[in-house]
Hints:
The complex is a heterotrimer.
Chain A: E1 8-17, E2 20-30, E3 35-39, H1 46-53, E4 61-66, E5 69-70, H2 76-81, E6 84-87, H3 99-104, E7 110-111, E8 114-115, H4 117-130, H5 146-159, E9 164-168, H6 176-191, E10 195-199, H7 203-209, E11 212-217, E12 220-226, H8 232-240, H9 244-250, E13 265-274, E14 282-287, E15 291-295, H10 302-309, E16 315-322, E17 325-326, H11 332-337, E18 340-343, H12 347-351, H13 358-362, E19 371-372, E20 375-376, H14 378-391, H15 408-420, E21 426-430, H16 438-453, E22 457-461, H17 465-471, E23 474-479, E24 482-487, H18 494-503
Parallel strand pairs in A: 3-10, 3-11, 6-9, 9-10, 15-22, 15-23, 18-21, 21-22
Antiparallel strand pairs in A: 1-2, 1-4, 4-5, 7-8, 11-12, 13-14, 13-16, 16-17, 19-20, 23-24
Helix pairs in contact in A: 8-9
Chain B: H1 8-39, H2 46-71, H3 79-93, H4 98-121, H5 127-146, E1 151-152, H6 161-164, E2 166-167, E3 170-171, H7 172-190, H8 192-202, H9 204-209, H10 214-240, E4 242-243, H11 251-261, H12 273-296, H13 304-328
Antiparallel strand pairs in B: 1-4, 2-3
Helix pairs in contact in B: 1-12, 1-13, 2-7, 2-8, 2-10, 2-11, 2-12, 3-4, 3-5, 3-10, 4-5, 4-10, 7-8, 8-10, 11-12
Chain C: H1 3-14, H2 21-46, H3 53-78, H4 86-102, H5 108-132, H6 138-157, E1 162-163, H7 167-174, E2 176-177, E3 180-181, H8 182-200, H9 202-212, H10 214-219, H11 224-250, E4 252-253, H12 262-272, H13 284-303, H14 308-330
Helix pairs in contact in C: 2-13, 3-8, 3-9, 3-11, 3-12, 3-13, 4-5, 4-6, 4-11, 5-6, 5-11, 7-11, 8-9, 9-11, 12-13, 12-14, 13-14
Amino acid sequence: MIATGPLLQMEGISKAFPGVRALEGASLTVGRGEVHAVMGQNGAGKSTLIKILTGAYRRDAGTVTLDGRPVDFHSPQQAQAGGVSTIYQEVNLVGFRSVAENIFLGREPRRWGLIDRRRMHAEARRLLERLGVEVDVSRPLGAINVALQQMVAIARAISFESRLVVMDEPTSSLDEAEVATLFGVIRQLKADGVSVIFVSHRLDEVYAICDRVTIMRDGRTVDDRALTDVSRLELVARMLGKDLAEVRRSGATGFADATHHTERRLLEARGLRGAGRTLEHADVAVRAGEIVGLAGLLGSGRTELARAIFGADPVEAGELEVDGRPVRFGSPADAIRAGIGLAPEDRKTEGIVPEMSVRENLTLALLPAISRYGVVDRRRQQEVVDRFIRRLDIKTTGPDQKIRELSGGNQQKVLLARWLCLDPRLLLLDEPTRGIDVGAKGEIQALINELADSGLGVLMISSELEELVEGSDRVVVLRDGRTVAELPHAAITEDAIMSAMAEGPATGAGERDGG
Amino acid sequence: MATTSTPARSITRARLASVLQGQGALVALALLVLFGALRYDNFLSSYNVTSFLANNAKFGLIALGMTFVIMTGGIDLSVGAVAALASVVAAMVSEYGLVVGIAVPVLVGAVIGLVNGSLVAWGRLQPFIVTLAMLLAARGLALTVAGNQSVAVDFESGFTALGTTTLLTLAAPIWIFAVAYLLGVLVLGRTPFSRHVLAIGDNEETARLMGLRVERVKLGVYALSGALAGMAGVLLAAQYGAGQPAEGVGWELTAIAAVVVGGTLLTGGLGSVVGTLWGVLLLGLIFNVLNFENGRGVISLSPYWQSIVLGGFLLVVVLLQNRLAARQT
Amino acid sequence: MARASETAAVGDLGRGRARPRDVRDLGQTYGAAAALALLVLYNAVFTDRFLTTDSIYVNLTQVAPIVIVALGMTLVIATGGIDLSVGSLMAIAGALAPLIFLSDVPFGVAIAFVVPVLVTGAFGLFNGVLITRFGFQPIIATLVLFIAGRGIAQVLTNGELQPFRNPAFQYIGLGRVLGIPFQVLLMLAIFAIVAWTVRTTRFGRQILAIGGNEAAARLAGVPVNRVKLAVYGISGLLAGVAGLIVIAINSSSDANQVGLNLELAAIAAVAVGGTPLTGGRATVVGTLIGALILQLLRFTLLSHGVPDAVALVVQAGIIIAAVFLQRQRQT
């Protein structure tokens, strides 16, 4: 039988959740052997559409045709059996089990009802070889790095003989080299005639690997174009539902191109070393009114440096000075008293208290200051909360709304407000705009800018070069737990940061294995 | 939340801690045996060894089922009460002979386990609360059915052979104990079922997305735990010659202690059947050694000291294991 | 779990949704309250002499120790922990008090109130230390004292029943203020304090924040270890108070019986009252209502000739029904 027409056709898909219409007549068409991007802001309906395809949600209306036949998957298992595999943003495998077990979990090769371990390992090796990956398949998955884990997830997906592989933000935890490996695998899949749906926020990647793009906004499909026909600016404009000219005027990020210079040193860290091996010897200084970008690949010790400064992880060696006085924080509470705040990278596991209200989340760190004899002054609390909801334009139905019901961008604003209401002098921001839709992202960047203007010191960790280039007054680059470069404002370019991350003059780089 | 985003460090550390815990229990067990053998004359006598093993068989069965439940990240508090209920049921059906006397109580236990499992898996209720309620219910049923007193077994039907028969000098309960653990080791090491059990305990949502039938596996472990508790009840009835509706109080917690001492993570995802075996023997041996110590007549410890020593021992073992694991990483 | 996909879903859902959350929360409390009201109503109609002060006081005095322990348990559970040791701690307090007031220490009665409670409070702190300093899981940490605690009480008393008659001491279990049993007033006072603490104090919010997301609480400067220590200490203190009440009512202390299975009763009351075992929420009123429901249920069944053993089965059903209904409201 000769297959013709598109592989996947989703038409008129609608889905409502209590109180909100997530999708209204959305569509998605994917050709054979095509790499197809799905883009849109958070809340545009991408995830819902993907989940309907993979059987995690049921649709209210619409049709899904796969290979010319109507399908209706009730569960991820059914979708898998029907040739649709999904790879999620955060690798969804089990860390304690071995690589081979993870690939074959649920369909282990058996002999007399028992697992045939030899065959399982051999087949796992064969699958990974096909992806150009070499790894000991008997190791626990959690003991290998995230990129390899991602490859294992892909090996699992293709082992189902899938015709369509859905990748939901697969690169969010990968560094550049790992992304390149992933792209190699995607090209391999394409060559084998497998179609790929690629959901991503990152324009560079979409343009690098995808053939077509479906753009979504407010639960509808607003465009389906070949990427060769659409410019980046136009793409962003369609996602935002904005005028092209307007986007052009405001730039790609919310940072204004201004330097904020003072000479007063707020923070100085020299030769900081943490307990593990991820942070070896890091130097960084932040002056009042300055945004210092902290760059480095995943695992370079960026997050660990921020945590060590903040007293969240123990410091084994090195000096830390605040306002020129040597300090050592035993706990975050000490750092907070010294006027420092940390917005963690992973909002969900380290930032928000999901079941608590916006009010309580916002004032969690402020509690000691707004209570007398241990009793919280509700009026002062309310004043603070109202002020910051207004000031940061937090979109919420009210201070009593549970924070988990807010969008990612608004959650991040609440977390920033948690620190701002303490009137801090230094903020450590770990990936402040990760996973946040384009609109809120700009607002947060503008806010950071404004804070620095008013004299606050900011240490901003970011994986997005654009953000570092446009936002930072200085950039400090880490590699393998060491500070390898410091770029003054004039020298900050994407190329300069990248080459420092990759091969900058490390102090004692030769003695490390560079993993 | 053992997702794969956990740093490799903590995965390795947790695995190491688990191994150390299992090994630690074995080392402690060996030391205690050595201590006993050197100090007391009849400690290694075949009488003491066989009666020790026969008495601990029922705890062993319960702890084995608990191991699998805990590996899914769950807990089963109902096992002690289920064993009591099963012993009553066994006594009541003992007149129909050995086969019926075993099958019916085990089935009763399995059905109770299925109820637990259904409420946990499909009802999405917390295992702690579900099995706590089942503890009350099974205890209430046992007392009601037995009329608040122990129920004598039928000594004519052959049921009591279970407590008295020996094969190759070992009593039947010891064989049951041994076979159960051999099967347990095989199931854990070699079957897809155990892989799914561990995957669910590691990260349930992920296991679901990987297409595992999470509900069925959970149902399976609770049914297994219930059936093994039922079998423990059968042994109880056979060994005491009566169904004991008030027995088994606190067995569930001792079983949990044995499982944890044996190196199974209470949060699920990692576990060891052999480790549980060491844990069961270790906790049992403490009582045995205390009995011998009292028998020597030099110092006399009231039986009340036993629970203090047991609690202290649990404390020290877990403390040492935590310290060791922390130092190694 | 499924963090990524959930965030996305919440993002999709979160826009402009106005959820009547307060109504839902109230509904949860009212659900349990309605069940309690129904039980009261049923008894008022069908149980002889139920609406007499005697019968009301019987129920309240019986439930008082459970409520007092359950209030401490509510705080522990709100941090995401559990305390299995409370029953054994009650036995320790119960064993210590007679030893003190039966000896001839000066101010024996006063000391007999203070010392046992401080001792159990210290044991509670010990639980907390195991959990915060040594990284024990709460279930295992408190299992240690669950096992050893009763042994300690038995060794203190040699496992023998200690009968006594000491009106000054027994005021805590038998005394009346304006005709109301003293322990009922004590229970209400402790209830009011705990409810006030959770609602209005910094400590209360920090408890909920720890139960809701411990890592986030730590990064926000919440003194996690101190709060947890305090919570387990409070649970120990309250268990001690409950132990004193029980022996005062019985006019004797039996280390084998005091507080037996009370940890389960307390956890059941907390669960029926609507505090989830996963932590991050605490309904103190719910705990009071939950304990009253379980008590009244048993009373109702017993007064209609249903044996105690069957009452256990019905209680089990109520616990399951309660958590099942709460679960449905949460989704």
